[in-house]
Automatic annotation (TrEMBL):
<feature type="transmembrane region" description="Helical">
    <location>
        <begin position="58"/>
        <end position="82"/>
    </location>
</feature>
<dbReference type="InterPro" id="IPR010380">
    <property type="entry name" value="DUF975"/>
</dbReference>
<protein>
    <recommendedName>
        <fullName>DUF975 family protein</fullName>
    </recommendedName>
</protein>
<feature type="transmembrane region" description="Helical">
    <location>
        <begin position="163"/>
        <end position="187"/>
    </location>
</feature>
<keyword id="KW-0472">Membrane</keyword>
<feature type="transmembrane region" description="Helical">
    <location>
        <begin position="22"/>
        <end position="46"/>
    </location>
</feature>
<keyword id="KW-0812">Transmembrane</keyword>
<keyword id="KW-1133">Transmembrane helix</keyword>
<feature type="transmembrane region" description="Helical">
    <location>
        <begin position="102"/>
        <end position="129"/>
    </location>
</feature>
């Protein structure tokens, strides 16, 4: 049985190094993502009437699906950058093939998390931790939503506590980023997404010490 361990300091040190290396591109992609995917949703949420019309509900649903599509492209870009692979702005918009299973996996994931949180809270947290890597498996390994969820679950078997601590750090960093007038999130969200991608790379390759070469300085 493999026993994984995560050195959070080294993990975020490497992620920050990659962020600095590609900072201009990452900032541009992050701003594009927020302007196209996040701001329209926030606007609709803030200015929707208490009883929205059918057209407004359809618009809100369309914006949510579009946000999920761009989020998959964003994950893909961060996954490429940690390996110093070539990326371009178009990569934010070209995840057409893995998107249908990603949408299905996302729905299953969110339903399971919400039900778990509603019942006893801890099961919801457990589910969120163990199944969180499904987007990366869909981008690199499989076109099956169920298979991606299964792989995430089984390959995080001995890493639950470590991933809980990692998740706590991710939440704190992104909250701090959001508090800085929302501007800090341009740093913290790509940073934490790259760190998550690094963990996935180790899980998929079976390397137990996280981070290890070539993902450490």
């Amino acid at each position: 049985m493999q026993q994984y361990s995560i050195d959070l300091i080294r993990l975020f040190k490497f992620s920050f190094h990659q962020y600095k290396k590609y900072s201009s591109f990452i900032i541009g992609i992050a701003v594009t993502y927020y302007v196209l995917a996040i701001i329209p949703q926030v606007y609709v949420m803030l200015y929707s009437p208490e009883e929205p019309s059918g057209q407004l509900q359809i618009l809100s649903l369309a914006l949510t699906v579009f946000q999920l599509f761009l989020s998959l492209g964003f994950f893909h870009i961060m996954l490429l950058l940690i390996d110093d692979n070539y990326v371009e702005v178009a990569d934010l918009f070209n995840s057409f093939s893995p998107f249908p299973p990603y949408l299905m996996a996302y729905l299953l994931y969110m339903i399971a998390v919400v039900v778990g949180l509603f019942l006893f809270i801890l099961p919801g947290i457990f589910i969120a931790i163990r199944f969180q890597f499904y987007p990366y498996y869909l981008l690199e390994d499989t076109h099956s939503a169920i298979t991606a969820l299964q792989k995430s679950y089984y390959q995080t078997e001995n890493l639950t506590l470590e991933l809980f601590l990692f998740g706590a750090v991710v939440i704190v960093l992104n909250m701090l980023g959001a508090l800085l007038f929302g501007i800090g999130i341009i740093l913290t969200y790509p940073l934490t997404t790259m760190a998550t991608a690094v963990i996935y790379k180790h899980l998929s390759s079976g390397v137990t010490a996280i981070p290890s070469d070539p993902y450490q300085l």
